[in-house]
Amino acid sequence: MSASSFTFRHKVSDTALPYRQIGAFKPGEGVGGAELHWSDQQWRVLLEELRIRSHYEERYGKQSIPNDMTI
To answer: C-alpha angle with apex 61: 70 to 53, nearest 5 degrees?
Structure first.
């Protein structure tokens, strides 16, 4: 039963309770990224990721990155 049980809470301070009735919440199984897509998990963007182009331009010069490269 533990393989098909999930816990759920609305905020960190809540107690995690078993979530046994799977409706709109459909965790993925196996390969293919379904868990990340259907469970709507998103990670915070790191500061380094937001300024990667600026970092490389400052360090190596603007000519180091091709104009059509999207970073």
So the answer is: 30
